[in-house]
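Handout, section B. The chain below has 201 residues.
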Amino acid sequence: MCNLEIKEKFGTFIGADGAKKFIRPLTSNWVITVAIPIIWVLTGICLACSWYYPFLLLTAKFLHNYDYNLFDVTKAMFQDDYYLFGVLVGMFCIIMPAIKHLSVAWVWIFDQKVRSLERNLEISRAIGKWAMLDVFTMSYSIFSLISDQIIPGCVVLNGLWFMIAYLVLNYTLDILTTVWVERIVGVALGEVAPNASYLNP
């Protein structure tokens, strides 16, 4: 264990005896303090828009001329008695991404003991594995490229672009969270040598 001293203004609190360590990653660096909230808010906005805005319009004469967002798709599956698919879309494309997004905020914002922070980061990662809006987006993107051969009259709408924007921002947020929080935990536990420029930019 290293006796690491970090100024209180950076949001990291470490007891002199090494037994009590509290960390708030969001305030450990002024760049992170500015960048993470912006990226997190933009990610949340794109996630909400990907749910709300239609991503598919059916124009074929033998089909209803409807546009669909994720809520519409989930509802339509239940109405057509495809309950399993409705649950899968609702759970993995709506509920789990929302929980995962909130879990990232939990990792960054609150004062936590080092081990608790480490555990919460792992929990956030585990939740992220079940947030499968990225799988849905990729599948739908491939479908949109060959839809004329399968179901003529399918038109891609703006909802898809919000999904793609969400994925880009979400992966950026994941990378920053993993790299930065792991670094902070490593320094606090003495597993990584502290760097003055890293702690006090």
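Note. The first helix runs from residue 30 to 52. Compare this with the example in section A.
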